[in-house]
## 1
Amino acid sequence: MHGFDTFAFQPPDSGQSERKGGGGPSVAISGSGTHLTLRSVSKGFGGRTVLKPLDLAIEAGSFVSIVGRSGGGKSTMLRLISGLTAPDTGAILHNGEALAGIAPRTTMMFQDARLLPWQRVLSNVGIARGPGWEQRSLEALRAVGLDDRAREWPAVLSGGQKQRVALARALVARPHLLLLDEPLGALDALTRGEMQRLIERLWLGQGFTAILVTHDVAEAVALSDRVLLLQDGTIALDLTIDLPRPRRRTASEVIGLESKILDLLLT
Amino acid sequence: MSGMGAAASIEARPRRRSVFQARRIVPWLLPAATLIIWQIGAETGWITMRTLPPPLSILTAAISLSKTGELERQVLISCQRAALGFLIGGGLGFGLGLLNGLSRPAELTLDTSLQMLRNVPHLAIIPMVILWFGIGESAKLFLVALGVFFPIYLNTFHGVRMVEKSLIEMGRIYHLGSWAMFWRVILPGAMPSILIGVRYGLGITWLTLIVAETISSSSGIGYMTMNAREFLETDVVLLGVLIYALLGKLADMATRWLEHRLLAWHHNFQSGAEA
């Protein structure tokens, strides 16, 4: 977990409020994030309530993390937002439009990379095809530093490389909303740190809304504008994190917030 | 494929080449020895001609039969029957396997009936088939098609059902249409299982054909051997058996080739890639 201590890809920035104006040299802010609204959304499975009626608004372009114990409804919430699962009650609105079926301009990374083993890396990235997909996929692979592996089978890649390919696939369609369902959970600490920096850098560059489900409170604090603690199907804590990026994991504010959330989580 | 693999193979080259050559030779040692002992046994009178004619006289029989064009004609007829029966039965099995694998209502309607039919050994209905079709071509095609149908149906069906749900979910997130989902996710995912069905099906093709041609036929390899039996031409009978073995082997090689082409991504075929 402490294989690195800074997020140093991006030149120092004075925080979320100035993110949209500034950015790095090669960065084009499109401001194309999805604004998300959940209106009394609830979900149960087989008589067991997983999410109690829930209201939530997520600002366009923000990075929100959802933490909480296993079975607390984190992944369910992400699946509801993606449209993979339909809510029992309530409505989910993407930019004000109620969701019907799979969410538009939304991509998702899962715990496992879910690459098609029978397609080369490039074809996996460009799974949605469309005009110029090969060129666009190659560019997305370049962004995650794997353009030299475009012609390989996914089976020869390491776990971290597979997730980077999955990230390239998620970004090639220029999503307005990126859902991350613990995509780094199975990676070693060093790879994990690299991936966190990569995700943060691409998020800063592309301006999509990001929602990250994670077990790792430190990860949530280091990456997010806002951390939601989901417990017994309700939001037990909604914490805005207004710290400048890149954040040092060892900075006292980061550690302070981390222990605050952990205290709540463990009681 | 990888740089590491290449480096390793350079170091190991001399040893590997000799191992490679030994691997090609060793499997043929036992068959070759058998042939030699068999030939000597026959010539010394240890094995009687009537029981087991020596390899050389089988070869002579093959040459004299092919001089008249008889051998080629019979082999061709048998091969045509095998191919056509396999295509009909395999095609139907593949189609219905896909249908029932992809559609729950279709499975509900058809699968139980098909499972009941599956439990009837297809060779057991030969008397029935002769009553229906006589001893013409259709009888043999029907039997082969029936035999091939089930392994391909079952393996296609299970292959489609065994495609990982997580990959289908991923496809949905990327808004794959049903056609793209089928071609890029479901069919390739089911392919290893489908090819197992093809391999089983080919085995059953030859087995069925042997039985069908032996029991009721006026042409083909089975007919040729049964005819030779009447005249006590043991060498021709053995020739027929050997040809069946050879054709079966060829069919198996064709499937292996198909597997190499269609399952190139499969880890089994990526030699050295992960070493």
## 2
Amino acid sequence: MNETKVGVFLSDCGNQLSQILDFDALVNHVKQVPGVALVVKASEFWRGEGLKTIVDAIKGKKISRVVVAESLPKLSEIRVVKAAEEAGLNPYLVEVIDLKDHCAWPHRDTPSEATEKAKAMLLAAIERAKLLEPIEKLEFPITKSVLVIGGGIAGMQTAEDLADLGIKTYIVEKSPFLGGLATRAGRFFPTDDCAICIQSPASDVKTITHTSRKCVYRSGFTEIPNLNILTNSRVIAVEGATGNYKVTIEKKPRYVNESKCVGCDLCTTVCPVAVPDEYNAKLKKRKAIYMNVPNVHPPVYVIDENVCKFHDCAKCVEICPTKAVELDQKSERITLNVGSIVVATGFQECDPSIVKEYHYDEYPDVITNLELARMIDGFGPTSGEIIKPSNREPARRIVIIQCVGSRDRRWNPWCSSICCMISLKHAMLIKSAHPEADVTICYIDIRTTGREHEYYYERAREMGIKFVKGRPSEIVHDPETDMLIVDVEDEILRRLLELEADLVVLASAMVPAEGTKDLADMLGIELDQDGFFKEYNAKLRPTETKRRGIFLCGGATFPKDAPTTSLHAHSAAMKATKFLSAGKVVKDQKTAVINEEYCGDCEFCPVTCPYGAISLVPKGEEHFVAEVSDLLCEGCGICVGTCPVNAIELRHARPNQMSAQMKALVSVNGTGKPLILAMCCSECGHTAVDSSGMAMMQYPANVRVMKVPCTGILQVHVFLEAFKAGAQGVMVVGCKSDGCHYEVGSQKAQKKVELAKILLNEYGVEPERLMMHNMVFIEGADFAEAAKTMTERLEKLGSLQLTDVS
Amino acid sequence: MTSYALFLGCTIPARQPHYEASARKALPQLGIELVDLDNMTCCAPPPLQSIDLETSLSIAAYNICLAEEADLNMITLCTGCFESLAMANTMLKQNEKLKARVNQILSSAGKEFKGNKEVKHYLQVLTQDVGLDRLKKSVTKDLSSLKVASFSGCHLLRPSALLKFDDPERPHVFDELIEALGAKSIWYRNKLKCCGGLLRGYADDVALAIAREKIVNTTKAGADCIVTLCPFCFLTLDLGQMLIKSAFHEEYNIPVLHYAELLGLALGIEPKELALDFHKIRLDKLLSEIR
Amino acid sequence: MVHEKDDETLRAGFSGEIKHRLGGETITLCYQCGTCAASCPVAKVTEKFNPRGVIKLALLGERQEVLSGSAIWLCSSCYNCQERCPQKVEIADVIYALRNIAIMSGHTPNIYSEFASGLMKEGRIVPISKFVEKKRTDYGLPPLKSAGVEAIKKILSTTGFDKIQWKKEGTP
């Protein structure tokens, strides 16, 4: 192998730093370091001539490692690394440090001390650079197709976008018809248009223009090229990994051939079995062979196998003019190979029987908002008439109760977020059809936070809908008058009211869809505390999950109204497209690597890895070793911090690299103060140091910053090594414990620090010498303060006397 | 015979010997032995909890300790006693820190709460130890013409998280026990709501207004009598009708009985054995309907 | 013994004071939905008591008004509200905590002084008349067992109950 030749490039940031740092001394210091082949000083290296100097040196084979001292906030690292790569040097052989924000500016009051610290920083970068190893780019082929789970408005819109973009798309819907909750809702707020109206596919078809919304049945949804629709189907197994999933679907028999049925309705006229229609709130009966409503999709009948008498009856088979009824259909297993999965399983209305004081399960005239929606729908079971289900008489005194089983710590603590608007919509639709109706909404808070939603509320008041601020304590059925009585306090009047009602409507909580937990387990993705699918990051990655290639949209993550669901659906489609478009995942191999000689038979790392990147594989008889997936590993090193036998390392933060860096940082003092090593994670911890420097907050130069991938990589022996090398104190600076970029890293570090405080006491290290800090960028002042406090504390403690335990 | 340490409390021996007499005579006929222990005190009910919760918990725990020492589970007649004792028993069994705090206090009286005994209301003993079948078979009188407005009182059911007696919104245990005797238990408005008894002595007018509502609702529903479990409810509804008469000039005369009395009558115990002369509202008509 | 503190200094901290007392732990969960008021049998017959109102006043730090007023003594401890509270505020227990603080601060209704003295003297809060005690034999009831007055006295002295100064303020 060729000799390692380090090129060191010192920027004085347009001569600013020369006011503080003695560059001549730095250059002389660096030149003496073994392995340094080139030292150049200029005013900047992140662009222009400076950058060209680096590129030329690489191209001229003068150097094989690059150390650049620049200002990090200027994106210098990205620019330099890219340029080096283009010049033919592996980007992982470049080390960039910041003499401005990490040294000159925060120590401008003590220039000679700053110069000494700069020497240490340069030495550390050089020593680390000498030990760096090239890291290769890996490519993982992926299957360019998507499975969308759920055929409600979220799933349909995502699938449509994906298919339009030329990606092979499957949509799996568990019920026999597409449309999900929306089809039952009838109308949507705030426009009061049909819920089943969707965007038109971009396909160039005579009846479809890109500007129009269309009824689902006219939308041509089923005709979109690349889109495969599987209704009456559910996911039963998922195998494989990112980019290449093998999904097993169970397609239940419909008993009606989709390609033969003409939807003539003759079958339902002869079917002798009638059961309460769940879809229509049991307000009417349906036959064993049925369609929910005439405008459903696909427009093909289905047989309810739980009630059909099959060959004992077979009247439908006899009458069907196209021989579409096939009573011997069996359920099928279908295997799909997809690169990506979008979860669009939505939410459901909670059964409000749990709120016993409202007697939903006892009183037929207590119904839910979704059931009311069926009554309001002209296609619904009452043809739009509002009735008392108990006797089918018209209901004219209607009380709607908000937050039923929602915002209720006994059941579902969250606000279901859409019920206020749903209830307002229902109240207004009733009032428009029946101006004489008396409609009262009992609420805790009216939440109309969307665009135009407040006007909707305003219109409801104009229409004479009554509002009572108060959550009812009980609904009582008076058997004498057959009336419902709602006990409620109007808080504004401070008066107890007994509202008389023909019909009470419960705005029942919106909860995770059935089967959410099972699906999450199958996909290996997380749920939040409320049981909804959890996104990777609510602010920045609202449609992604921790598993690359698995996306979320719509009500699966939280109850959403239609506009928000649309936004989410289109966003998920874009993310999935971005993931699939290259047909491969390209990723640097900055991953963990196992030393199989030491590894064996423990489960710490596979259990701890936040990305499920480590598995155990058999090695010989009854012996297991860990195996790292380079595709899933994010290179945080939390596994390293967990391994009890040091059998796992990061390629880009090997123990010898970290050790050399650490020793160099405390090799020069020159401040007369106790040396402190601040082990900062590469994310929030390091940015807190940036920001204190950017704001020129002053802290003493005895504080030396060592960047690690994540504080989760640290182990007790690393702290001991730091003290042995000469550090008098150690600060561990990680992300907030609930905001770690690698999920659990800073929590793990916290525990490690607590443990080290106990263990290192044996070596004479007082617990106060080791501190954990959790900081983010905007807390630069806290970093400066902590550095000062630690310095003072160490000065009081006096010099560290390490006990020789051996 | 299943033996229980009888916790009598204050109000029953002081004011309602008819409750005590009917229980002492009826329960042994069903195989329940009531054992009297020395040194029991007040259970520390809401009036004392209002003064100091920690002291009240300690007093309740002290009484449970007596049953623990006698190696007996405890039975209460009064619903108020049941609430204070069962609540303390559950809280201290669930919460180690609280238990340690209370045991520190109890050590001054030479006691230690261990948490190895149950506190049961006698309705629980009737359903769990005797059983509805045996109860039905033991009935010798015909109560079938009786329409009963059952009123369990608040503290049999609530706080349900600690008492775990019955479903607090849809209780059924008490009504089943009434129907087991042959009578009919009827629905009336606000059945589960309070009688106001605990406000007597502080705000008599408020207490009476609440009691009146209970009397009005049960009368409206056509009840022949109200059946209670708690001596406070009894007092509020029985004596209360006298007070309503003078305050509101309304006369209801709806008889109020403790369940133990109805049980005694159903088992065939002679009315004069049951000290029924302590009732303010006459029972003559009611007794004539029990054959 | 806690004495009445300067109202201003305690205003901010009253909900904290309640939270730290046995029974008062859940008060800050309240979001004022009024389920308690609608459940309350007392609020139904008098405007002097509204559990939601009491909690609101306490959360606003109106210590003096809460402790010296009659409202906290008008709860009938029926626990209806507590069962139904959607935020799991232990309302009846919060009222006990408020009553405990009120008594420590010298606001004791007469009837409670009577309960306390009965307990301290006889170990029972309802005195037993000679008349009823004699009648027991007529009904075939066994003689009454004696109450553990000594044990009660020791417990009361340990918790400081016997040192509470029973100001006779009368019914507020």
## 3
Amino acid sequence: MSGAAPYERRLLIGDRGNGLLRKFWRVPWLFVLLLGAVAAVGYVALWSAGNGPEAYAQKHAFRFGFGLVMMLSIALVDIRLIARAAYAGYALGIALLVLVLLHGNVGKGAQRWIDIGPLQLQPSELMKIMLALALAAWFQRASWEKVGNLLFLLPPVAMILVPMGLILKQPNLGTALITGMIGAAIFFSAGVRLWKFLLILGGVAGIAPIAYEHLRDYQKARINTFLDPESDPLGAGYNIIQSKIALGSGGMWGKGFMQGTQGHLNFLPEKQTDFIFTMIAEEFGLVGALATLALLALVVIFCFVVAFRCRHQFGRLLAVGLGTNIFLYVFVNIAMVTGSIPVGGVPLPLISHGGSAMLTTMLGFGLLMSVHVHRDVEFGEPRGR
Amino acid sequence: MILEKNLRRAEDRQRRVFTRRALGLGLGQLGLLGFLGSRLWRIQAEEGEKYRTLAEDNRMSARYTAPARGRILDRNGRVLAENRLNWRAVLVTEQTNDVRQTLEAFSRIVPLQEHELARIERDIRRRRRFVPVTVREFLSWEEMAKVEVNAPDLPGILIDVGSTRQYPEREDMAHIVGYVAPPAERDIEGDPLFGLPGIRLGRAGVERFHDPVLRGRVGAVELEVNAVGRVIRELNRRDGVPGQDVQISVEAGLQRALRARVTEGTTVVVMDCRNGEVLAMASQPSFDPEVFAAGISTQQWRDWTTSRSTPLINKATNGLYAPGSTFKMMVALAALEAKSIGPLDRVFCPGHLDFGGNRFHCHQRRGHGGVDMRTALKVSCDVYFYELARRTGIDQIAAMANRFGMGVDLGIEIPGTRRGLVPTRAWRQSKGKPWSIGDTIVHGIGQGFYQLTPLSLATMTARLATGRAVEPHLTRSVGGRAVAGSRPEDWPSLGIPERDLKIMREGMWAVVNGAGGTAAGARLPGKYGTLAGKTGSVQVRRVTRQQRENGFNAERVRREWRPNALFVAYAPYDNPQYAVSVVVEHGVSGARTAAPLAREVLIETFERLRGTAPPDAQRVAEAERR
């Protein structure tokens, strides 16, 4: 076994090195650099979107810096402590979702955020991470046999459906589906038998037509628009068409920094948030778009690498959940701006303007790093902390 | 040991399943990201050209540009119609979250009326969200500044600058210069210019007649616009041709003075009888032409169109009156031409003429005794002209009236001018009625079916004075180039023997200056020369036999039953320059009401036009430089 020796060595370091400094050295600095690069892309794009740094770019950099500190702090927290707090966190997430339904601020016909001091919090974003934590905690102790038990699977299914339902009620179809998919990814990775997995998936899919009936008109319109965007070029399909025009006119090399006509002449809606990728693709062309996509793909890949290298099921499942979360952000956003799926206000992580999204994203990365830093710890009997 | 081994095995199995599945999941995700990459390749590399064109379409907007409308100037270069900046507030619905709130905030700065709000809301419903809707036009500078300062509270409100028509002489020139108004739906199909927002079209008067010249030609400009249609910069421009200035013959000061002098129902026309130039044309009441440019309210329009005093109608060109005794020269000339009487032949006037069982009265009940032509004109003997008409026939009289510009199209640059009516036998028969000699007799003193405009009466007087077929006209120069018609030689002779005309002129001289003339009160102060004219008093109701026997006094009946007073004149007698016609509705007596007014008008005209040079391009050019 060639891999055994370094494995053992790492185990040893892990056992001995509980000191903060040791942990600090185990932080994957290359990954931190990668995150910095993605955030820098965001900085440049927001500079252009705001016609200068004042509007968005400066705030973006500041938030990233703040998020970085938060991320590194979380990275040093023992993963077992985090695992123990998982259910509490989940409960908090649910409580916030209920709160947002009761007292939330309405935006675009949905109740989505609550104000906490100067901060606008979108509980649905936080919920996705809390769900990953709770599911990972549930499956952590589960033996292979237990995972095969249908009764054992019922509570985690409920754990997914309850927040989904609450988010759907806001209503925010996109985030509800993403939440469900994160849950599905963890179920799948936890080793739930394939036929049971498909059974559950099929059951949920069976509810979909009923759910469609309960969709708000604007959501239905969104789906219908997606099917035929040119049908109403000045109405709901306008955004998709303008986004594709911006992308296409960027061509191979782009129009140059601050030179995008579509974006700068306001043909692009919400160019600093949902359509930031279009800005990048228009001004830096296919090359810039693919480079950005590649950076984001590397982030997703790293999440999976963390999962593979982790020695405990909790960390593995959490990493997969967090990685899937990032993947879904990226995929839904870029698929949306390229007109591949219906428009649904999903930001691009670390690039789009928005404080709440940045904080939840960095919180997720903090947890991921904690998994990485504590990849070799033993669960089971708690060892000295 | 075994237990631990089993545990380890179970753990390994769990790990292996995880690795397998997570790898599948991860690769699946990478595959999907790869799919996005291929989408980007397709859109950006393969279809890039198509989308580049679309992007260009998006940002380019070709727009027509309105050329500046030409000005209208008076004979001295005074501005009668010009363009003024028009500050407009427009609302782009897309740029505000709450239209009502924005409008309320705007209303606090510039109060909006109920009907304005209704119009704005209607426009908003009809237009796309990014098309600006006019909120208020003609903002004052202060209002504009206030709106700009409060811009943060007025999301979606933009200030836009257009141009509007201004008439410095306002009511005084409205009937001549006319006005402009937005084009009607049916106009829009013609010139692309008419589709432009804020464009105005000449609707009346000189504005309408010279509209093609004043309007100019539309230009085009290629603009880069943003998503809401706001112009970012200009890319390409093809200038239109600005409209040309039109100089008209009216003297603004004279026009203003006459309008100030006359009261409702009184109409005055002053012409240069040498070339037909109209110097002033006063009709009361008038209207404010700027109201039309701003868009007239229905209430205002209803008031103006239903008012008995008809402010929108220029009575000089559209008012129709029976000419009465001012027409007698036509009868006399027709008779001389038909040789039905010699100028010195006398007709005995006993105060009435009996014909076919009817008695036709002379205004002088005692009769004038034997009168020849000059005397008949001087004292306005009705019996003399009854007899002349009877001898000559209505068609000959009508033909003569037509030659003097009555009942025909005079071609003046005021669209809608009435020709008037000069009856003939054929005209009467076309109505299915016979023409009797009695009718002819009545028409011999300008009563009956005659319907003539004050303008045509002035034209007749000018033609009598000069013997030329001068036509009343307004245009002196267009775009700085003088137009034909300002020299006497431009007008052909009427072909009336000078001997006959001389008798008319002498008769008219005697009306004012002769002993026993009807209009001695119109005599001019010596320095202006002498005035020749003819009075007219026209019954608007038949005077019954009973009234006549009780001693009919026209001044004692209800105002609208009193006779109209008329006077036509020219001066100076020996070197005719100006011709005047005055109509005073229900003025009772031409001699007492109309003639003194004509005298004043002529004095005013002499004073104001003394030394006025013939039209020249120089003056227009000077006015432009100012």
